What does this fold into?
Amino acid sequence: MNLIVCKNYEEVSAEAAKIVFEQIKQKPDSVLGLATGSTPEGLYANMIRANQAGEISFRDVRTVNLDEYYPIRPENDQSYRYFMNQKLFLHIDIDRSNTHVPDGTAADPQKEGLRYEQLISDLGGIDLQVLGIGQNGHIGFNEPDTELDAITHKTDLTPSTIAVNSRFFASEEDVPKQALTMGMRSILNARKIILLACGKEKHTALQHLLNGKISTHWPASLLNLHSDVTVICDTAAREG
Ligand code: PGA
It folds into this structure.
């Protein structure tokens, strides 16, 4: 596992952007696995800036997002589809038909999981997956448990995730209780992975990733099974 420790959030975002740009320069039609949450916003801002400055094009890039609340409509301003449009897709030259998020309106979540897996495979697999990490060690919405799912599936959010995500909602009751998320295999199949972690709240989860041990109770720790993971964190997340 490669570890890049940065002074602050801006540096983390810039380092992540460098890796994304390098990937797209090497393969202009790369498949990027993308994440929502506060952490990747700085990366997305860097992508928008570079695109608008004419330094990089996303014309041929395809994207697959990690997760989506369930059930939720894409127009809902709390949906991850809405987040991605607002924070990135509407501001860059990507073809929006090449951007994919699990369908929060799917009548049959199990079928949707299989469709999403087939989609990723039809795209040729994920070249570079961007991840955040939950305070509880989740990646995507793969929540700590005695068993984890391999493929895209519907999941219950843990009370701790609902509490952490309630900052985006009027009240904790408004936070969706379920989500669709890529599974551990969907993520581990990516050719290259970068995980971004900022702030002391992420320290414990990061420790469980960096200590080289694997536990389903700290889902991010399964990234130790992958041979090309780069963790980019700030000193607060590293030192606590
Ligand atoms: P955050 O979320 O970037 O908003 O901290 C990360 C996550 O829950 O995976």
Observations:
- Residues 37-39, 132-134, 138 surround 2-phosphoglycolic acid (CB under 6 Å).
- The first strand starts at residue 2 and ends at 6.
- The beta strands are 2-6, 31-34, 62-65, 67-70, 99-100, 128-131, 153-156, 178-181, 192-197, 229-234.
